[in-house]
Write a structure and sequence with these properties.
The complex is a heterodimer of chains A (about 500) and B (about 210). Chain A is about 70% helix and about 5% strand. Chain A contains 21 helices and 4 strands. Chain A has a two-stranded antiparallel ribbon with strand order 1-2. In chain A, strand 3 and strand 4 form a beta hairpin. In chain A, helix 1 runs antiparallel to helix 2 and helix 2 runs parallel beside helix 4. Chain A is globular and about 60 Å long. By secondary structure, chain B is mainly alpha-helical. Helices cover about 75% and strands about 0% of the residues of chain B. Classes of the chains: A mainly alpha (about 500), B mainly alpha (about 210). Chains A and B meet through helix 4, helix 5 and helix 6 of A and helix 5, helix 6 and helix 7 of B.
Chain lengths: ~500, ~210
Amino acid sequence: MALLALLIVAAAGTAGTFLARGRAGGAPGVGIAALAGFVIAAVAMPADATLAVGAAQLVVTPYARLWLIAAAVALLAVELVSRAHGGQRNLPFAALGGLGAAAVALTVTDGAAAILAATAAGCLGLVATLGGPITMPTLRVSADGLRSVAVAGAGALLAVAWIGDDAIFLSSGAVAAGVLLMAAALALRLGAVPFHVPLARLVGTARLAAVPLAAAWLPAAFAIVALGWAQLGPAPVAGDLTGPRLIVALVAVVTIFAAGVVAILDDDLARVLGYGLVADGGFVLLALAGADPAVWPAARTWLLCLALSRTVMALAILGLEGADGTRHGRELHGWLRRTPSLGIALAVAVLVGIGLPGMLPFEARRTLAVLAVGEPLGALVLVLGALPLLPLGRRPGARAGRGRRSKRATRDAAGRREGGPDRLARQGAPDRPARGPRVAARPGAHRLGRDGAAGARRARRGTRRRWSRGGRGRPTPRRGPAAGSLAAQSSGASTQRSTSRS
Amino acid sequence: MAPIPIAAAILVLLGAAAALRATHGRLTVVGLGVALLGLPLAVGGIPDPLLLAFRTVAVLLALLLLDHAVRRTTSLIGPIRLGGTTEVAIVLAAWLLGLLLGSTMPDARGSAVALATAVALGTAGLTLLCFGHDTLRLGIGAMLALAAGATAVPAFGGGERAALELALAGALLAVAGATAWLAVVGGRVRHDLELADRPRDLRDAG
């Protein structure tokens, strides 16, 4: 009955949040209350609860209970933090619907039914990506997500059908085909190379608050179901599958390597989060490449750790974006001094996502890597898998304005010292455009809107017409602009100073 | 071969052909409905009446959701990329291939008609997912692909029928809900169901 209560809470919460969406101020309270209710129901549920719906059996395991509690708490935290930063309208609806379907997927005893439930959860989770201002790119990203979820679900179902209940009666070639089909479905759902493009677009386009649900927790639920099938289905003949295991291991290593390298080169922290998710998917694939039974508990541990780690990381990036108005690493000079709590959050994300030797996530990753590709290469894969977290440590404590800057940023800084363009820009509009010169943004600058940025651009343009480089880079006034022009009004102070100096 | 599964399989194929070929949104939804409602009979065996009723209600609800989404926007949709007729021919070929495979497999674990219907429906779903460029066809393709997967499991002799039917009903409702949401939201952006900037018709590519 406890499992039934959990499912009723999820269904009622989904319906309640859907109905409350149209009412001003009603939806946040309903969503938070429903998610909190789901947490309570999951905590209260015994670890051996069962439910029979006709001939279908749902059986709770300790891992499923732990996963549901962790997912519900994480999504409640995402909802609370996103509310503080403007909110994500559909998140509670998608989270409760997705969690309810994931609860069925993790507890139902039939493999094909579990895959269908995990696919349903993925479809419901995609609604979260439609919460912000909708544009055609957002719409296409959601449509691509639906396409990926459906194709992955259908592929996994075909693999389950192909292998059937007893793989022992099949030839090793037939089992290999089924395992490869399931690996392809898993790679598609987790965004591993070469199916990484929909995930990368989703993380880059959708609101950040939707990413943990749509790209971490629900794909993880699908992966748990798929790996559970792989553990029970083709496992008896797994020793004969050297070829398929090699292919899956190769895809996983290429995924981890590519995601790690691209993450180092990129500057956008949200995209770095996406590359991290791609690399995490590679580690999950390594579980299918390992023949040792020890990979299954390690994979389950890793699936919990990856979702938790990426949720904390998404929350930290959301906080950074809210505080500094940017999520570009090079524009976040000194963020650790300004917002030390976010530094702690990122440290937690690193500890949960990578860990230290002896810690659960580290040992899970090490087990997956070593059992799949052997000892020396496994250690290399372990190091490569940590690369997507490196950009987070980019100049956390540096003062604003220090370090390597672009030519334009240096020129603007020089102008600022002389009371030139940037000073005018500050007077006209304290913000700069999002893709403008790379100097540090001030907290809250993003809230000033486009008019401020446009004013700053106009002011700079007008002032550049007036200032020319005379002598050794010292700006000298040209003949002034027409009285009453924007540049004349805004550069009054500096012109006066230059005149008095001369 | 039993006549009921054969008749149901033909009904399913007609529904899938309508979903592929029609350029009117509501007709596409009707085609999907025919395919999904006829599918349990094509699998073979008499399904549990309670399960059949549950699945029928879920399919009707899903159709209602899709119809609501189509009505909210323009109901006309462009042809699928290869024109529709080509895809129908591919699906028919897939059905015949499935029938041949099912009849000649040495360790056949299920009925050949069920296997052929699953292969044809899966082909129709994947065709719509790959070549469809509007929200409605994308969702219909997803529903057909999942239904085909769920049909393939008992066709190969595996799975627990009751759990599978219940999970399929839930999955179809979830896909229909997400599709309807996508269509309604997309309709606010550009007043139709189109996803591509300029739909390409591959027939003109040469």
